[in-house]
Amino acid sequence: MNRRTFIGHTAIGISAMAVKPVFSGKNEAPLYGHNGRTYRQVKGWGELDASRFPVKDCHEMVQDSKGRIFLLTNETRNNVLIYNTRGKLIDSWGKEYPGAHGLTIAGKGKDEFLLITDTERHEVYKTTLDGKLLMTLDFPETAGLYEKKEAYIPTETTVAPNGDIYVADGYGQQYILHYSADGKLKGWFGGRGEGDKFLDNAHGICVDQRSGDATLLITDRTRCCFKRFTMAGELLEIINVPGACVCRPVIHGDLLYAAVLRSPDMNNANSGFVTILDKENRVISNIGGSEPIYRDGKLQPLSQQPSLFKHPHDVCVDRDENIYVAQWASGNVYPYKFERV
């Protein structure tokens, strides 16, 4: 196993502050972030009539090829809310996913599709963008990994360049299950354990092709790190983000974005922020988080500063590099939008 543990770069001095006031018209609006990756919150974005279009936990968000923003919530009056980038509701659908948790978009053009994980139904669903069910990935009983269906609690998916599907069992036994595009189980790796190749709260997963060959980036949320594996499940690298209990890794351009559910540890409730890493896996900016500081090549522990979020669960980056943040257990708030400044 060719394992490389990320240890950062030499110490860097960062002049940008986490929050600084700027003036826009009559209102003073803060900027959040560091090192030229700064953002201003768009107040009231996406807020709807909760009696008609309620949300419970806002779990994840994606953007389709038409530029529409899809929000997944476990509110069964409307599991999916579809917005334009200005925050206007375009459509809504879905009443059958009480444990709606992970949302992945894949395919091209008219063949775009969604993958939804349901932590209560213990299944994964492939749907059209308007909610038509195309395929169900049921409890992987044939793998022999689980004594009962309830032990399998999938949290996230990703799609490989060849169409294969990977499912992260982030709330269950911590396996990464590998399926063919037509839903046949091909293998698995990971699982719960103490060694580096094992996972604890494998909450998120994505395919990373920034360096050429496709690899899998997988969250090890309890241990505050991402782990990079080959597509066959061989551990390559550990990217430590101390103090950041990271959710799904999101690749946009050369950067890696992630919502941090809690900071500085999983026992610290009502906290969290959004973190941004460059192609070399160095944290360059935190939105609602402390300034990233490296000493002797090692990232110093991060924390929430200021109190901007409550349990951020996912980040979506649009074509203009604006970001949208979905929050879990946050008082039924709608997503936040932050414009790149």
TrEMBL record:
Keywords: Monooxygenase, Oxidoreductase. This is Peptidylglycine monooxygenase. One of its GO terms (molecular function) is monooxygenase activity. Coiled coil: none annotated. It comes from the Bacteria. InterPro entries: 6-blade_b-propeller_TolB-like, TRIM-NHL_E3_ligases. SUPFAM superfamilies: NHL repeat. The keyword Oxidoreductase applies.
